[in-house]
Amino acid sequence: MRRPRPVSGVSVAVLVVAGVVSGWGAGEAAADPSSAGTLYVNHDGACSDTGTGSATLPFCTVQAAADVVSPGQTVRIEAPDELSYVESVTLTRSGTEDAPITFTGAAPFPGGSPTVLTPKGSAPALTLKSVHDVHIQSLGIGYPGTDAVAVTGSTGVTLDRLSFRRPVPSGGGTGTAVSVDGASSDVTVSRNWIPDGYAYGVRAQPGASKVTVTTDVVTTPRRGGIVLTGTSGAAVTSNTVAAPCATGISLDGASSGTVENNVVASAPAKQSDSCPAPTAPLYSVSADSADQVTSDYNAAANGSGTAARPRPEYAWADTPYTTSVSLHDATGQGAHDIDGLNVPALTAPPEHSALIDSGDADAPGELTTDIDGAPVVDDPLVADTGTGTGTKGRPDRGAIERQDTLTVPGDDMPSPSRGVAPFVTSVRTDDATTSWGKPIATYAVDFGDGSAPVTQAPGAPITHTYTTPGVYAPVVTVTDADGSSRTVRPAAVDAGTTAAPATSLSGALATNTDGQVDAGDAVFTVPQPANAWEVAHRVLTFGDGDQENLADGPQKIEHQYPAAGSYTATLTQTDLLGRTTTAKVTVHAADAFLPVAARYDAERTIPAHGVLKLPAATVHADSDGVDAARLRVVASGAKASGTLTLYTDGTTRPGTSTVTFGVGRTVSNEATVKVTPTGAIDLYNSGSGPVTVNVATLGLQSHAQFGRTYRPAAPVRLLDTRSGTGGHTGAVAGGHSLTLTVAGTHGVPAQADAVVLNVVATTTKGSGSLTVSPEGTVNSGVSGPYWTTGQTASAQIVVPMVSSVSGKVVLRNNSKSSANLVADVVGWYGPTASGSTFQPVGPARILNTRTGTGGKVAKLGAHATLKLKVTGAHGVPASGVNAVDLNLTVPSPTGSGYLVAYADGTTRPDVHSADYTSGRPAAGAALVKVGTDGEIDLYNAGATAVDVDTDLLGDYIPAIVG
Hints:
Number of helices: 2
Number of domains: 7
Number of strands: 75
Radius of gyration: 45 Å
Helix content: under 10%
Strand content: 35-45%
Oligomer: single chain
Largest sheet: 10 strands, parallel
């Protein structure tokens, strides 16, 4: 999780390396000039192409620097996080012999990859146009479509230590990595890595002169590795060309010059569009060039032993030669060439290889370091067979010099490597060894915190104090007496702050653009921690057995819970020193309401003590994450009195009731019932005779779908025909209807998807029932309550408004006689983030005044109030609940009256939660607001004491949404 800079760790006890691979080393790079002579390019942050290119306000583009650079200046192209500059740069400004212009890439950390310049479109990444005295070094060249670097009409140009990327596939292998035109001279192409995919690695056109190609690696060129045509005074020295699909090194068109110390290694290949000439000679000098070219000390790695040569090694004056001996016998060239080798083309020669110490130290263009910046050294295990006056022996052939193998033990690293800043660390300097038996000359340690590197002879440890918290990438370089070195980059040093970084976590339910809530889908927010660099890793456990490892930076993580419930999510954050901090949040994953156009879905007769199973499809509960269904149940035609109990299929039948019925009477009630994962529910008839039931689905509760939240309200009277409230005065005649505006008034928003009404029929002149429907719908209503002549009957009804466009409901008196109607709104469902989500429970009987359940063993007296605790038990949270879903039953009344259920601590409203008549048990659904103390009040408005049963079906908690 650390991001300050990339580092590489060392986990083995002993590190052994032969040579330096793919680094840029010290080499022959010119020292950077003073800051006054440096232009900076860095588009990672504040930059300006119209400024001066200072370190504090650099140029944004390389071209901006190229347009203003002057002799003696260096353009330093910064590369934080290996930034790539996507632009095709053309340089038209020149330096002087004493004050050249230099462009250099800057690695993001010692030994890291260089800055990458990626061409834009089909133009080269870099074009040097009619310039002189220019050095380009330490740059990456990215993915060209055709040519990568083009030198045109220029002199005094050096292209050193460029690392090329493969061309884009659409390039078709037609481009050249380095192209020199015929008007250019005195051009040096040195120590470059050129991968496969190019038609040519380095190519000079007729007329070019003094082109030196030295110490480069070219792999799998398609039409030629190093091809100089009509080039005078050329020097092709110490290059490695691997697996060319054409000639590896070629001079033609009346070229002149030398070819020395090179290695061209073939590989079996079949002819194809991308490999047109896999059997072409490894080296080729044309007839018009043969008299002007000298070739010696080269190697042709073209098989070994008696194996058949897959291709000619030479073509001299257009005549092929299969071996160096045959070439020398015929032409006098290649007197010291070697062939028939199997060599690793892209690594240093193996110990005792004929390539070692066998080159010409005086070859034109020969460098004192190899492609990786490692020095030319004498291998004491191999006899010198080369020539020349090199100060440190004869060079190896090819671009990579065999080095002394230095072994740096794993404990030669900063130890300890972590601690609270400031802390002291040290590096051992007494136990590195070499395979050549050379003495160790120096240990050099760059501790990576901006302090000056420390270099000393072996012996005492090198100590250092990290004073500032941070993550640092130390570099340890061990050098032997001949200059061979081994650089290791240990695991990062972690200098921690005094205290572990704090962490925080918040959770909310997911919402969509319509304002609906997925009540089981939590969105967790994890902000960027303080001192984020110090954080090693973070893991978020969701409380349901799942967890997720978090990436760097601020995060939003969405998680779908498998079921409704309360879950504690925990964020555990571990810093680089192993210290752990945690943050927790409890998420109430619950249900959102999905209204269903109300119509009766099933009519069945349940035998005495029988059970009716209602499948998921029947009650519309066969969709994602449905945990409960809101049903209206009508019982009629009973042959004996009894109760109906709704419960989850496959569970033990609870001791609760939903509908209480008598012989020959029609009664109804609503209830929310939990469903199985497949949606099935059971309906039990406790009577000793059959009863017919009609079941209508009013809505579903789902934890995996976007739905509506509930807003409980203090009851508001919408209609009372006795007083004219609601605009209707006088009893409603039998068979007649009235229309009542609900949505868009009395605190109910126009976009409400369902409303919860308490409706009452009173002063009834005959038996009948009430149907409540959204205006403008057909067969989309439910009936209830039912009454007999003179009876006052009430019901709480959820009215889905999904089919209504007016926000109005229609109340129809289905009696043949008149009745006064009363309606109160007690809540509504809608797409609002400020609403509440539902948690189904039980069902559980939380009050029975006959047995003492609920804490009271006595009837509820006339005009008396009973306080009932509804939170903190039966799966209901102890706090935060603002409404509960109840069923109230008066099992054996001896008088007439009604119950009122309301929030404790509030004024008692004039609503009927359950109307009862002497000798006739009654039941009523009630979505009731909860007092701040977690209690509700039950008031008996009748003149006689009654027993009361209360069944808990679920609770509502305000949704926390994000």
